[in-house]
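User: Fold this, then the next.

Assistant: Folding the first:
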Amino acid sequence: MKTLLLVLLSLPLMAQGDLNQAILANASQAEALNLAPARIRLLPQAGKLPTAENSGRALYRWSVVSVLAANAADIHSSWQMDEANPFVAGGSKHFNGTSIAIKTGLVGTSLLLQHVVLRHRPDLYKKLGWLNFVTAGGLAGVAKYNSGLK
C-alpha cells in the first residue's frame, strides 16, 4: 500500500521531469537554427507587470480583511444584547453563540462564493473588492450604532 502511494505521488514529478527535458530539447534546437534568441528564459520573471488577472488582488485582499474586522466589531458590539433581526437571533431574543454562528456563516459563505467566482473571472477582483468595502462600511455602521445602545 505504501509503495503504491509512493508511486502515485511520484508520477507527477516524473512527468514534469520529462516535460522539462522536452522543453530544453526544443529550446536548444530552436537556438541551433537561429529561430530563437541565444538565451531562453524558461522560468517566469520575479517582477511581473500587472495584468488584468492580478491588478485588483491587493485591493480585494484588503477588502476581505476589512469585512472580517467589521464583522468581528459587529459581533463584539452585539454580544448579549437584544437582536432586532429574527433570522440572526436564531429563535432567541438575545445575540448569543447561535447568532455568532449564523452571522459568521453568512459572511463566510459570501467570501467563499466570491473565491469561486474569482477563480473563473479574475477580472472581477476590483469590483468585488469595492463591494466588500461597502459591506464592511455597513457592518461598521451597525457596530457603531450598537455601541451607542450600551
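Now the next one, as you asked:
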Amino acid sequence: MLKSLERDGFTSQKRLAPDLGTIEVARALGRVVDVEALLPLSKIPTVQSLKPRTQDEVGLNRYSGHYGLDAFPLHTDLAHWIVPPHYVLLRCIAGSKDVFTNILPWAPIVDIVGMPVIRKALFSRRRRRIGSSMLVRALMEYGKTTIMRWDPIFLEPVNKDAQVLASTMLDGRRNAKVIKILLNEPGDSLLIDNWRTLHGRSQISAESKLRHVERVYLDEVHQ
C-alpha cells in the first residue's frame, strides 16, 4: 500500500482488516491526527462518520450542507488550515455499488494552467476558524515537501491567478483523468495523500442512502 501511495498519491485495498475498528487500522498505518485533542472546541471527532445527508439536515460548514446528495466536487480536505492533514483514510462501514470516491492527482491541473499560476494563486478563507489562516496559497513549501490545495467552498480567490485556477477546476478537460474508487464492502479502505491528490464523491442514489464511510486524518504513514 505504501509503495503505491508514494507513487500515485493514493492507495486502496479491499477488505483491509474488516474485523478491526477504523482507529486501529489508522494507527497501524501511521500517526493519527487527534482532532479531538487538537481542536476540543470544534467538537469534531477523531474518527468521523460520513453518511449521506440532505442539505437541510446539516449546516453550511459541511459539504452536505451545500451539495446534499449531489456529487461533491474535487477538493483538499481542510484546505483552509495553515497546514492541512497530510493523509486521509476513508474506510467502508456500509457500502454501496454505485457511489464512487473520485480521485485526481494534481498533475493534470498543472498541465492545464501551468505551475507559475498555481504558485501565485492566493486564497482567503470563507470565514475565520480555529487552526486556519486568513490567507493561504494554492502551493506552499512545508519543510522539504510541497503542499497543493484547493476547495471550492472554504477558499475564495484573492488574485487573478487564483481565479484562473478556480475556473480550471470547473473545466471538463480534467474529468477524463479522474480515477473512480468503489468502497462497497466492510473494510474497503482508501488512503489519500491530501497534499498531492484531490478527491470528491459521486452522487448518492436512492439505493445508496445507507452508505457509511469513516474518515481519519494522519500526519505521517509508517515507512
